[in-house]
């Protein structure tokens, strides 16, 4: 027999779970928040660089190490879809682009991926948000998104 007080707790728990799920779906659909993925590690991901696939598609290998990101700057045209492949040469680092709500971890032996589209021109700072030693606060990089009108 379920007591009245228990019933209240059950209803509250189910309601909270529902609110949480609605918030998740809302974030995915309306705010374009997606989950970070992983791909199997291999040595090629330790070669930092931006690769142009076509005019609007880029794949970028980011290598984090104490205390820098490589490449430190990338340039892409407005509207480009950029896929990040992130790994670390040493300790755990973070990879945060606040304007795009991107939050990834750079870990040795692991490749974290995320795909996003830069619709608005501007400079998007990347910061390390995982404490990684004395140079942590200087560990920054930039994604520079140019308006096609500037070219
Ligand atoms: Cu790298 Cu903090």
Account of the protein in words:
With 151 residues, the protein is of the alpha+beta class. 17% of the residues lie in helices and 44% in strands. Strands 1, 2, 3, 4, 6 and 9 form a six-stranded mixed beta sheet that branches. Strand 7 and strand 8 form a beta hairpin. The longest helix is centred in the first third of the chain and has 26 residues. The protein is elongated. It starts with a helix and ends in a 5-residue tail after the last strand. Bound molecules: dinuclear copper ion. The site of dinuclear copper ion has 9 residues, from loops.
Write a short abstract of this structure.
Helix content is 17%, strand content 44%. With 151 residues, it is an alpha+beta fold.
> What percent strand?
35-45%
How many strands in all?
11
Encode the helix/strand succession as letters: HEEEEEEEEEEE
Main pleated-sheet profile: 6 strands, mixed
Tally of contiguous helical segments: 1
Radius of gyration: 20 Å
Q: Overall pLDDT, averaged?
A: 92
> In one word, what is the shape?
elongated
How is the topology of this model organized?
Blueprint (H helix, E strand, L loop, with lengths): L3 H26 L7 E3 L9 E6 L2 E9 L2 E3 L2 E5 L2 E9 L4 E5 L4 E5 L4 E8 L3 E6 L12 E7 L5
Parallel strand pairs: 3-6, 5-11
Antiparallel strand pairs: 1-9, 2-3, 3-4, 6-9, 7-8, 10-11
Main attributes of the structure:
44% strand; binds dinuclear copper ion; alpha+beta; 6-stranded mixed beta sheet; 1 helix
